[in-house]
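Continued from yesterday's entry.
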Amino acid sequence: MKISLKAPAKINWFLSVLNKRADGYHNIISPMQCVDLFDTLSFEEAEELHVLSDLDIPAEMNLVYKAAALLKKVSLHKSGATIELKKISRLLQGSVEAAATRHILSSASTGCGG
């Protein structure tokens, strides 16, 4: 079974880095606005984990791949998923798609998180 969803684009109007936290991350202020653009993610169960996209980066650098691989590792799920990413908007930098990937794979039986 194939599941598809739209990942909405957003604009961060500015980024203000505040203090560094004890965990090494920083607190930030970054007002966002949603826009009417979407990338599409499709998920289908597979034996291995594969991410197909038009991005010119290695799969291991893709946040969608990283989210799915980490979820597979911590869930100890044996199978994988084929994830197809169709980029419409270059406004999306990966975090929205990675969040959508985690949501789908952890809540559905489509692959490494189900």
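--- second protein ---
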Amino acid sequence: MSLLSGRGVPVLMYHWVNPDLGDRLRLYGVTPRAFARQVRGLRGAGYRSADFAELARHLSGEAPLPPKRIVITLDDGYRDNVEYAGPVLEEAGFTATIFLVTDRAGGVNEWDLKHGDPARPLLDWTEARKLDGGVFRFEPHSRTHPELTRVDPARAREEIAGAKKKMEDELGRPVSVFSYPHGEFHLGLETIVREAGYRAAVTDLQGLNRRGTDPFRIHRTMITSRDFLAPYAFKVLTGFGVMGLGREMARRALGRPAAWEQAGFA
């Protein structure tokens, strides 16, 4: 199938939504004004949000979604997601999934401090329990946000299975979708995610999600501070950034395997 053929569901990935985007990591955030413009634009264009349960039924063919459905996600669990993104989503009648780093809840984004930007506060478990099931639903994003492709199998299992247990204990309900820190994975990590009892995983693979897409390889496209009207619309329509699409077309033309296809765990 062509990269751009057929109707599919885009899954958008955000991080912080804040007036202060930072310096070295500003690419990964969006301002409240930009977020509001994007969500209101989606609503005005006829889009409606879907959750991961609906997406799973769409991928399996059990219950195909209507056109113009979109899944919104926010990684890490920043407190500003609630302050700035929550009211905009609620106004639009949208929902979103927050992938929370379970063992850092109530703390800060320690994994980013090496870059030199100020620490950003994360939601705590009291807040997560209060919010879960409304505009936001919570799912795991590992225990401590390591680069899982660089750790050994035992550590990876602790991060993946341990995050699931921690969140289920804190929220009092099953969780089913894992978000890989940094989006990167390989087949060994995917096996651990499956064995841990998850039913799906989101990755850094770009593109739309169609019937037959593996639920453990859900495609997402990251929204950045550079995504003004045209690049944002391109990502919504195709699931790709322009450069990401070019790289994927070149990889396929050269017949090179994707990075995730390696077995991993040397």
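Helices lie at 32-44, 52-60, 80-92, 125-131, 153-171, 187-195, 229-238, 242-254. The mean pLDDT is 95. Will compare against the first tomorrow.
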